[in-house]
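Notes from hallway chat w/ T.B., transcribed later so I don't forget. T.B. wanted the structure written out for a chain they're using in a teaching module, and asked if we could keep both sequence and structure tokens in one place. Agreed to drop them here.
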Amino acid sequence: MSTANSSDDLQQLRQGGEPALAQLFATSHARLQRILRFRIDPRIRGRVDSADVLQEAWLTAARRLSDYLQSPTVSPFIWLRQLVLQTLVDLHRHEFRQRRDAGRELHLAGAAPVGDTSLSMAEVLLAGLTSPSGQLVREEELQQLQSALNELPEVDREVLALRHFEQLSNLQTAEVLQLTVTAASNRYVRAAARLAEILQRAGLNRDQR
């Protein structure tokens, strides 16, 4: 999303209030749902209804709209993304507290703590391979790829997650990670090259769907 589009969204929110927010949420729904599905911890994925998470995030956005508009620090879509992820964080904490397992959490500037990014990335990458493997082989590949991804610096994994899997623009990625646009772009190029090396070394650099 361009700076102009973000400014337009902000102006529409200021002029239209909650109805404008409802429109923005509706047009962003598919993107927010994709982000949510990627970020849900695999250990609780079967117990989480993404529609419920998005509904709770919408209610939070409606309650906090006036506060956001008084002093917006991020663009409207990134604000909605933050609310969706914070709702997911609260759900993770509730689930893992019940299991006496605080879970794997990620802490990055501008990013809410969520499930293990390397595991989520590994699952998506393996799901995109054309040749299905047996269950045991698949589990071995998953562990191998996750371990390899963990060799990347945390911020580089997050850049890849934001660009490749959440499909954010470079500008939005910079906004989330509080980097300059140039720094975000450079990190992405380096991280993408490193990811290609990891896939090659792991023997997983096969044709993707």
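Follow-up for T.B.: The CA atoms of residues 68 and 173 lie 20 Å apart. Might be a good example for the class.
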